[in-house]
Design brief:
The chain is α/β, with parallel strands linked by helices. Helices cover about 35% and strands about 25% of the residues.
């Protein structure tokens, strides 16, 4: 079995694979102030609750966009699993050709998603990851990472509205039945959710046009991330929601580099 960790700005998602099968997935808060022992106790408790044995883990791979947390996580893996974790970064084989001006600027999570999506779909793709930031990535049929778009995530955008507009209340991020709200709360929910859907569809359509103009087939659009369910159902541009894309990508990268 292998343990995979996707460290995001807000949450860290952990998964345990047995072969190609994802046995379990956990989501915990990302906290750079936690020590290795605090993370170790938390992870041991998760294993205990699901009756998995830490000693059966044969490998660990980490993808992170939070550099400050890596010392604690790597030390935790060494201490509690007696393993040296593989970290997605320079020198790790992915099979993706990065066409960014500076390839080092591309977040590890975006590369991991690209690896999984290319392996699964083997065609031109637009990947949308709804997290603290929402990222759009263009992947060619030949596994070239062409570039992308980075937007504030839906929670970040809504928090800015709550903080800047003194008279507007903090509202739950749920989709109202109608876009024309009859009160302040439903009006805000409509603006946040449906406005974001409109933004996603516009960006995707522009990306499709650019990709087709350079000779790519019309890309297939795949979304992932914890907040994808708010957007995917009503978006006219998203073809498929894949909830475990990043975890699958980590498994694939581990397999490419384990020998």
């Amino acid at each position: 079995m292998i343990l995979v960790l996707d460290v995001g700005n807000t949450n860290t998602v952990l998964g345990v694979f047995k072969g190609k099968k994802l046995l379990v997935e956990w989501r915990i808060s990302t906290d750079a102030k936690k020590t290795a022992d605090e993370y170790g106790i938390q992870v041991m408790q998760l294993f205990y609750q699901t009756h998995l044995k830490i000693e059966e883990i044969r490998g660990v791979i980490i993808s992170s966009v939070v550099p400050n947390i890596m010392y604690s996580l790597e030390h935790m893996i060494r201490k509690y699993f007696n393993l040296v974790p593989m970290v997605v970064g320079a020198g790790v084989k992915t099979g993706i050709n990065i066409k960014y001006d500076n390839p080092k600027e591309v977040g590890a999570d975006r590369i991991v998603n690209a690896v999984a999506a290319h392996e699964i779909y083997k065609r031109s793709l637009i990947l949308i990851d709804f997290g603290t930031a929402t990222t759009f990535c263009a992947i060619s049929k030949d596994a070239d990472y062409l570039g992308g778009v980075i937007c504030p995530g839906i929670k970040v955008a809504s928090e800015a509205l709550f903080e800047r507009a003194a008279k507007l209340p903090r509202v739950e991020l749920i989709k109202p039945d109608k876009i024309i709200g009859k009160n302040t709360i439903t009006s805000m929910q409509a603006g946040i959710i449906y406005g974001y859907i409109g933004q996603v569809d516009y960006i995707v359509n522009k990306m499709k046009s650019e990709m087709i103009s350079i000779g790519e087939e019309e890309p297939y659009v795949v979304s992932t991330g914890g907040l994808s369910n708010l957007i995917a159902d009503d978006s006219s541009s998203i073809d498929e929601f894949h909830p475990n894309l990043t975890l699958e990508g980590l498994r694939l990268i581990y397999e490419k580099n384990r020998y």
